[in-house]
Amino acid sequence: MGRCIVRLEAPEGHPVYLEWSTVVDAPVTYAMTREELEEHVREEYGNQGLEELPARLERADRCGASWRDAYRESAEDTIRGNRAGPNETELTVEQIIERYWTRRPE
Questions:
Q1: Among candidate residues 43, 42, 6, the one with its CA nearest the CA of residue 21
Q2: CA 53 to chain centre
Q3: What is the phi/psi pair of residue 26, to 5°?
Q4: d(Cα 5, Cα 16) in Å, to the nearest integer?
Q5: Per DSSP, which regions of the chain are E strands?
Q6: Which pLDDT belongs to residue 70?
Q7: CA of 68: how far to CAs of 30, 31, 59, 78, 94, in Å?
Q8: Mean pLDDT score across all residues of the chain
């Protein structure tokens, strides 16, 4: 299963991160702050996940997505053709931010 970290800009002007799955072509988490992402990785993947996280975050901050392969570097490339909306409809970046950041449960 292919998963990466996608970095987007929140309306407030700061970065938010989602874990993205190529299996469902959609986020598998709500958008999170960097600190929330670190806690998520700690809980879901343990020490191995935390060891890999700095390199993944560096790629996400630089390219928009943490993929290692060059053909899907950016957040836009990763999101293109997504099924993140109702009934697996494609959402724009702005719609993903609305759905997964602005309306996330507190």
A1: 6
A2: 13
A3: -165, 165
A4: 10
A5: 3-9, 15-21, 26-27
A6: 57
A7: 22, 21, 8, 12, 25
A8: 92
